[in-house]
Amino acid sequence: DGGITQSPKYLFRKEGQNVTLSCEQNLNHDAMYWYRQDPGQGLRLIYYSQIVNDFQKGDIAEGYSVSREKKESFPLTVTSAQKNPTAFYLCASRTGSGRDTQYFGPGTRLTVL
Amino acid sequence: GDSVTQMEGPVTLSEEAFLTINCTYTATGYPSLFWYVQYPGEGLQLLLKATKADDKGSNKGFEATYRKETTSFHLEKGSVQVSDSAVYFCALSTPSGYSTLTFGKGTMLLVSP
């Protein structure tokens, strides 16, 4: 089945540790996105990538880093510099033109202990 | 910049009641408009979309019409079910190079039997 997978579903981290969230898609989509969701808030864009080896900062990129070495994969690293990392993280992908739909993965809930 | 405003929730309805969730937007150019739905602990699923003025998106009994003159994209359903209980997000994207999504804050819908 085609889709977007995120792992793990739940992740716990101690303060001061970096952690990497996985996002993989087999939809052959060019563009991929990372969003952060906090309770009662909409989704805020962290990073996005249109093609391999290219990515752009979104609205809240501070304390996060990404890589795009393969078309299928767009991992997100939450660094110790992120002041309030506890949140629900969603990965999405899209193909074609700007009017095409973004499809979302199931999300990873990160909790900092 | 682009923005989306949704009515605040929660919206509480009895089964078979009529649903309206208001959404208005501010954007340059001619955005595409989307409604996504999120069930507890899950990612976002596309509910419907419209890409140009006067288009009507529809799916699973839900409808929304792209109204350029009022910059609105209100979500409606004639008869809600308990299974429709979820958070609904209105979003827009503009057909620029990276075509990121701008989300409203979401509206929680609670349907009781």
Present the secondary structure layout.
The complex is a heterodimer of chains A (113) and B (113).
Chain A: E1 4-7, E2 10-13, E3 19-25, E4 31-37, E5 43-49, E6 56-57, E7 64-66, E8 76-78, E9 87-94, E10 103-104, E11 108-112
Parallel strand pairs in A: 2-11
Antiparallel strand pairs in A: 1-3, 3-8, 4-5, 4-9, 5-6, 7-8, 9-10, 9-11
Chain B: E1 3-6, E2 11-14, E3 19-21, E4 23-26, E5 32-38, E6 44-50, E7 56-59, E8 62-65, E9 75-77, E10 86-93, E11 101-103, E12 107-112
Parallel strand pairs in B: 2-12
Antiparallel strand pairs in B: 1-4, 3-9, 5-6, 5-10, 7-8, 8-9, 10-11, 10-12
SSE ordering of chain B: EEEEEEEEEEEE
Round the Cα radius of gyration of chain A to an integer and report it: 13 Å
Number of helices of chain A: 0
Helical residues, percent of chain B? under 10%
Low-confidence stretches of chain B: none
Structural class determined from secondary elements of chain A: mainly beta
Q: Overall mean pLDDT score of chain A?
A: 92
Tell me the span between the first and last alpha carbons of chain B: 41 Å
Low-confidence segments of chain A, given as residue ranges, are: none
Care to describe what's here?
- The complex is a heterodimer of chains A (113) and B (113).
- Chain A is built from no helices and 11 strands.
- Chain A has 113 residues and is mainly beta.
- In chain A, strands 2, 4, 5, 6, 9, 10 and 11 form a 7-stranded mixed sheet that branches. A 4-stranded antiparallel sheet of chain A has the order 1-3-8-7, with no helix packed on it.
- In chain A, strand 5 (43-49) and strand 6 (56-57) form a beta hairpin.
- The relative contact order of chain A is 0.33.
- Chain B is an all-beta fold and 113 residues long.
- Chain B has strands at 3-6, 11-14, 19-21, 23-26, 32-38, 44-50, 56-59, 62-65, 75-77, 86-93, 101-103, 107-112.
- In chain B, strands 2, 5, 6, 10, 11 and 12 form a 6-stranded mixed sheet that branches. Chain B has a 4-stranded antiparallel sheet with strand order 3-9-8-7, with no helix packed on it.
- Chain A binds chain B through residues 4, 6, 31, 33, 40-43, 45, 48, 50, 56, 58, 90, 92, 94, 97-107, 109, and chain B through 4, 32, 34, 36, 41-46, 49, 51, 89, 93-101, 103-106.
